[in-house]
Amino acid sequence: MVAILTGDIINSQDLKDPQLFIAGLSSIFTRLNLTYELFGGDSFQIELDQPENSFAIALQIKAHLIEIGQIQTRIAIGVGEITFQGDSLLTRQGSAYLRSGRLLDKIKNSKQNLAIRTGNEKFDAEINIGFKLCEIPVSQWTKNTAEIVSLLYTYPDLNQEQLGKKIGIKQNTVSERIKRSHWGVLKEFDTLFKEKVKALNL
């Protein structure tokens, strides 16, 4: 069982510098050591051997793009199998790829910017409600709050004072930005998500 994340940049045609989001995607994927492909000018695909990490990965991608230029992204997560191992992600086949690609097409016509499809309808319905709720604070992230989220993922063992020193701000400012990001709720949901994905029997 793998997870395929297929995504694109929202309103990419309106962005003044396309190279900004292309460089941004490449840098976050490289930093997270992900297997990925960029295609179509503003789209990407990622393959994860541990599907339970897909929500956290999606949040880090979103945070990084907002941090570098208030760039919003849409991501569809497909969980399933791979039946054909092509040389490129774009030539591979299987239920995980099919679900992810078709789901991205579906959510392009809605206001949902993060969704999952596993083939388990009960699981999908429950998690997608959670994703919709999580998207509310994420859609309101500023550059500063997204920067804090990125730091929290990059340096999970540092306290607020140490995180502040990384970017030259005080501990109380770090605390305020963490609250504005709704980090606590997002981490709680991520813990729940990991447990439910690990219990999936597809």
Automatic annotation (TrEMBL):
Pfam family, one: SatD
Family annotation (InterPro entries): SatD
Protein name: SatD family protein
Organism listed in the record: Mesonia sediminis
Taxonomic placement: Bacteria, Pseudomonadati, Bacteroidota, Flavobacteriia, Flavobacteriales
